[in-house]
Structures are given as C-alpha cells and as structure tokens.
Amino acid sequence: MAGKVSVKTVLIVVIAMLVIVLSVLGISVGRNYLASAAGGSEPAAMVTVPTEKSVKISWTTDKATLSRVQYGTTPASMLLQSDLSEEVDAKTSHVVNISNLKPGQSYYFRIKTGDSLYDNGGIPFSFKTKGGVEATPTVALVPTQPIVAPTSAPVAATCEQGEDYNKDGAMNSLDIVYCKQNSTGTSAGGPTSAAPTTTTKATACVPGTDYNKDGAINVLDIVYCNQNK
Hints:
The chain is α+β, with helices and mostly antiparallel strands. The protein has 3 helices and 10 strands; from the N terminus they run αββββββββαββα. It is 22% helix and 23% strand. Strands 3, 4, 6, 7 and 8 form a 5-stranded antiparallel sheet that branches. It has a 3-stranded antiparallel sheet with strand order 1-2-5, with no helix packed on it. The longest helix has 32 residues. The relative contact order is 0.09. About 13% of the residues have low confidence.
C-alpha cells in the first residue's frame, strides 16, 4: 500500500488548490471594482451661471456620484459647502445652486466626491458674481477767499502850526486839536480829511471878556466862548 495515494489525500490537495485560486480571483475582482469605483467621478463639462447674489454650477461625470461643492473667496479659504439638499441621489448630471453671495465678488470652488477632491488641474475653479458698485472718486473742495475790489487810499490831512483852524482869533495848540477832531479816517500818513464843506466864519472871542460870567477874566473865558459860539 506504500505506492498508492489515498482518496482523502487527493481531496485535501484539490480543496487547497481551489482555495488558492478563489483567493487570487477574489483579490483581482476587488481591485477591479475599486478601480472602476474611483474612475469616472471626475467632473467634466463644467458650467457656472452667476447672478448678483447666487450661482448655478453644473457638470457631468461618467458614473453616477453624489457630490458637493466647496467654495470660498480665496483659493486658500474654500471652507464653505453647498447644501446637502442639492445632491440627494447619485447621478451623472449634476446641478448645484449656491445663494447668499456678495455682488461683484470673485469666488473659488472645487468638487468633493466621497473623499476625493477635484479641481481644474491643481487650480480651483472660479467665477465672479455680477453687480457691485465701484467707489466714486470724491473731489475735495478748496475754500476760496472772496475777491475784494481795490479801493483808493485815503488822503491824509495835514494839520499845520500857525493856522487858525478854530477861528478864535488866536493861533495856538487848540487849533491843532480842532483840526484833528474835525478830520475823518486814518491812514499811514495821519488823519484823513473829510470832504470839504462850506463853513461860516465864527465870531472872534476877544480876550478880556468875562464870557462865562464867573467874575474872573482868564483863559477859561476864551474856552467857554469857543465852545458856545
């Protein structure tokens, strides 16, 4: 019986070979399934239709997928995501609407399918919303000074010694005081003469007359006379 192989031994060998073959086939099928699952999810035919405060993003995939849109105002801050209600079922034709955007703002986005992220060859997709008011340049108003028409300089009056300006019959310092008191305006050269007027020659105050009736004849009589004539 030494040269014979038992049926039991043959069965054990056959079962071992089947296990090995099935294991190999199982690994191959699993790899092919994962490969087919990963492939076909890349977005294609990307179209963006922005308005002032929203955007509609549409794309297609070769296989049915369930995707979301991640977006932000800079390529480094794509932290916002589209609402889950925009992609409820797996499909090959995708349309996502995003609202509450700022007018005239540039946005960057990418597509997330499962754990995979898709962009435009390493560069985020982008769009810009419509509208936005550009700042209107303001012009500072420079205050202006009123223009004053030049006027003629006043003519200075000259009060000279030796003139009987107060017409009291005596030429003294009272004449200079009288001259200056009866001149108008000032200038660099002194008082400005008023317009010439016709004056009536006053009656001379005669020294030696008691004009103020105080019982004494003195200089006060002449002052009183000049003030009351």
